[in-house]
């Protein structure tokens, strides 16, 4: 019988039991909170009224010789459950048995009967996964202090992991995370049967791991000065790392360290400038992006440095895998470096991409001498496959497929489903839960898909925001990777997952863990209204959501009288629709803000001379006249963009109109290659053929000048008093990123959100 069918049958048994007290009822707050969903769950026929083992007083626990289950025993002590270890199974309350038969990856059998709890597994890892399930059968209050007595529901569970690699990347470089917080993340991973903490320890913005041979890496590279003058940073001592690794090991979570190379290394170059191609003294940057300064691949001293670092990393981390990064490596410095060019000639390398492969190969061979294997982002494939490397595919699934076809293994974490730093509007829980980690094109290949990871990058997420971004989305991926697609893609699977998640969140509350929302709580639609107005409708996007909706005009303290979520609101002028979100009748303290504009061009026919980027369409061809404006998040779906091209759009107002002002918004974020246009031109026409340019354009000056801001720039032309039917806006691209930019010569982007046409009242 298939996994999903077993699970479905059992869930039906739960529902029946909850409705009919004489048919083995299962405590609703227990079994229904199991996440991820086990392979099969059955209620024993002889279970009296569904009641199983009564936990009261002291527990006796039988463990096979050599088994410690430290993660479990520590939890029992913390929960206030008195227990003792017994010799042999006779008379034991909880029996853990080692069995030789194949139970699957991390597989186990858990049986709760009236007289005892019995767990069978091949090893401690499988036994710990069984313990995790048993823990979820216990009252959530046990996460603080177990009640004096409680009953575990009678149930037989057979379970195993679908995929062997189930991880979370935690970036502690952009923002330093306290050791206690890293442990809390490990607790969360273990509870949902995830088994890898991918620990990102070196970056442009911070070096967090001590290397005895190179103390300046942490002394200098571990700290930076922010734009506001604040001095921030930190690093982990070896004792911190050893403690965290042991904590994770006790909970059967493997810590895979990541040491970025040959790019994303500005913190190291700040400490030791000779590691780079230019030996320039560079600060630890406080901004984000891709920097052109990388490790010098042609410098023997740099290569010796890298190997010394990896030696100490291998000593600190027992993991069989060391992640070496390999992503986003500009080759401009290598192309200009005599040492790099000489090495390419000596090795007979065709280009700088092959030089990167040679770099990675050399590091991989060094790590292999320590009995370990390297892992890298999918860019490591660009110059040829590094021998023995595991490929982590993030720019889609293509890298994973290519890796398996080349005979090596892959881990998947595409931005589309697995990037938890992305806002909920771009990647919500439903999107994560719909993920298919094993593409058909990778089946039956020499390599294999080992599993997947969700990635928590922290450019814009200090420690206090991380947990709400990780949960509950990481929990969705945990079920995808453990239970498998046959479960998660079954009919009504997502709704069933949300029901179980509600119970799991009760447990998190007692753990002191506060998750975020599973998705944006409300959605906004903008519809045509009367001329010069739009109708805004805010509707619930999650279950049990309500609240008040108000329009707050720009430069005004008071707006329209608020309406309830689900009722339309008429908007005229520029401002924000603000929604005070209520869930289950209680205020969340969350205010959703939607920038909007009611104007005469809204929902009028629009003509574009360009093809918007498929990643930034703004919502389609009508995006620049749909009444929606963009926020400070350029991925919010309201921005339309092109790369390396001009943008011209023309709107037909439908009739001659007296125009008072024209306005648009442009996005500026040079670290992401988004520049102001070289020029903006406004023009008007009465017939749609003969256009007259308006004066007063391009108020910002040199579009390619350095500007560290990430901001929205309004561009407004007012004081007009003219009549026209057609309005045209032309944005001229500034050209390639300038020489001073880390992406010099790459085409720059233009981002724009709405062509606003204000008419006479």
What is the CATH superfamily classification of the domain at 3-159?
Chitobiase/beta-hexosaminidase domain 2-like
* Percent of residues in helices: 10-25%
CATH architecture of the domain at 3-159: 2-Layer Sandwich
The CATH topology of the domain at 3-159 comes to Chitobiase, domain 2
* Unreliable sequence segments: 1-30
Helix and strand composition category: alpha/beta
Task: Report the end-to-end length measured between terminal Cα atoms.
Answer: 70 Å
Number of strands: 37
What overall form do the CA principal axes indicate?
globular
List keywords for this structure.
Immunoglobulin-like; disordered N terminus; 8-stranded parallel β-barrel; Jelly Rolls; alpha/beta; 18 helices; 761 residues; 28% strand; Chitobiase, domain 2; 7-stranded mixed β-sheet
Structure description:
By secondary structure, this protein is of the alpha/beta class. Among the domains are: 3-159, Chitobiase, domain 2, CATH 3.30.379; 522-597, Immunoglobulin-like (Sandwich); 606-759, Sandwich (Jelly Rolls), CATH 2.60.120.1190. 24% of the residues lie in helices and 28% in strands. The strands form 9 sheets. The protein has an 8-stranded parallel β-barrel, surrounded by 7 helices. Strands 1-9-6-7-5-3-4 form a 7-stranded mixed sheet. Strands 29, 31, 32, 33, 34, 35 and 37 form a 7-stranded antiparallel sheet that branches. Helix 12 (398-405) links the parallel strand 19 and strand 20. The longest helix has 19 residues, at 493-511. The chain is globular. Mean pLDDT is 92; it is low at 1-30.
């Amino acid at each position: 019988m298939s996994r999903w069918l077993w699970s479905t049958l059992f869930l039906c048994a739960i529902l029946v039991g909850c409705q009919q007290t004489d048919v083995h009822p299962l405590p609703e707050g227990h079994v229904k909170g199991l996440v991820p969903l086990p392979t099969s769950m059955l209620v024993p026929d002889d279970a009296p009224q569904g009641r199983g083992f009564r936990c009261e007083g002291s527990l006796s626990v039988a463990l096979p010789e050599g088994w410690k289950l430290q993660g479990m025993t520590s939890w029992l002590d913390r929960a206030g459950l008195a227990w003792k270890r017994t010799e042999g199974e006779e008379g034991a309350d909880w029996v853990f048995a080692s069995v030789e038969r194949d139970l699957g990856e991390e597989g186990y059998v858990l049986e709760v009967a009236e007289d005892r709890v019995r767990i069978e597994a091949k090893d401690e890892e499988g036994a710990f996964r069984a313990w995790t399930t048993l823990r979820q059968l216990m009252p959530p209050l046990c996460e603080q202090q177990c009640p004096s007595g409680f009953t575990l529901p009678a149930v037989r569970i057979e379970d195993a992991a679908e995929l062997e690699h189930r991880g979370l990347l935690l970036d502690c470089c952009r923002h330093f995370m306290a050791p206690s917080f890293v442990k809390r993340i490990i607790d969360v991973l273990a509870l949902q049967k995830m088994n890898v903490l991918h620990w990102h320890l070196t970056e442009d913005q911070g070096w967090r791991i001590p290397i005895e041979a190179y103390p300046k890496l942490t002394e200098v590279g571990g700290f930076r000065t922010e734009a506001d003058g604040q001095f921030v940073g930190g690093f982990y001592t070896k004792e911190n790392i050893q403690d965290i690794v042991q904590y994770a090991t006790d909970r059967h979570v493997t810590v895979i360290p990541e040491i970025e190379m040959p790019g994303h290394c500005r913190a190291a170059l700040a400490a030791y400038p000779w590691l780079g191609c230019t030996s320039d003294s560079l600060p630890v940057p406080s901004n984000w992006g891709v920097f052109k300064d990388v490790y010098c691949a042609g410098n023997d001293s740099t290569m010796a440095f890298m190997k010394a670092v990896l030696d100490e990393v291998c000593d600190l981390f027992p993991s069989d895998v060391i992640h070496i990064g390999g992503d986003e490596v500009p080759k401009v410095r290598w192309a200009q470096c005599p040492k790099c060019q000489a090495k390419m000639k000596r090795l007979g390398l065709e280009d700088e991409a092959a030089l990167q492969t040679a770099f990675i190969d050399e590091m991989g061979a060094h790590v292999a001498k320590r009995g370990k294997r390297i892992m890298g982002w999918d860019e490591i494939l660009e110059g040829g496959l590094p021998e023995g490397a595991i490929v982590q595919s993030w720019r889609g699934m293509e890298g994973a497929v290519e890796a398996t076809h080349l005979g090596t293994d892959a881990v998947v974490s595409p931005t589309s489903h697995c990037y938890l730093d992305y806002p909920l509007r771009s990647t919500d829980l439903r999107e994560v839960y719909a993920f298919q980690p094993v593409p058909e094109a990778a089946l039956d290949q020499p390599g294999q898909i080992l599993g997947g990871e969700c990635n928590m990058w922290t450019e814009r997420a200090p420690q206090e925001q991380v947990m709400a971004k990780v949960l509950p989305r990481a929990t969705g991926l945990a079920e995808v990777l453990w239970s498998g697609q046959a479960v998660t893609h079954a009919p009504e699977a997502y709704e069933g997952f949300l029901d179980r998640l509600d119970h799991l969140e009760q447990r998190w509350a007692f753990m002191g863990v506060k998750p975020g929302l599973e998705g944006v709580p409300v959605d906004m639609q903008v519809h045509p209204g009367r001329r010069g107005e739009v109708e805004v409708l805010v509707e619930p996007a999650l279950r049990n959501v309500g609240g008040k909706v108000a329009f707050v005009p720009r430069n005004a303290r008071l707006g329209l009288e608020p309406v309830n979520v689900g009722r339309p609101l008429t908007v005229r002028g520029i401002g924000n629709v603000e929604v005070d979100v209520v869930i289950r009748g209680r205020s969340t303290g969350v205010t959703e803000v939607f920038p909007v504009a009611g104007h005469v061009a809204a929902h009028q026919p629009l003509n574009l001379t360009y093809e918007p980027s498929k990643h930034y369409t703004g919502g389609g061809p009508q995006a620049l006249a749909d009444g929606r404006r963009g926020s400070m998040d350029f991925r919010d779906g309201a921005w339309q963009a092109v790369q390396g091209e001009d943008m011209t759009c023309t709107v037909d107002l439908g009739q001659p109109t007296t125009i008072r002002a024209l306005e648009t918004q442009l996005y500026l974020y040079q670290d992401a290659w988004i520049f102001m246009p070289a020029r903006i031109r406004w023009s008007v026409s009465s017939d749609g053929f003969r256009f007259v340019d308006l004066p007063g354009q391009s108020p910002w000056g040199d579009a390619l000048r350095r500007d560290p801001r990430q901001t929205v720039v309004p561009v407004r032309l007012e004081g007009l008093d003219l009549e026209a039917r057609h309005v045209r806006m032309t944005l001229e691209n500034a050209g390639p990123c300038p020489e001073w930019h880390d992406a010099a010569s790459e085409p720059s982007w233009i981002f724009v959100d709405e062509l606003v046409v204000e008419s006479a009242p």
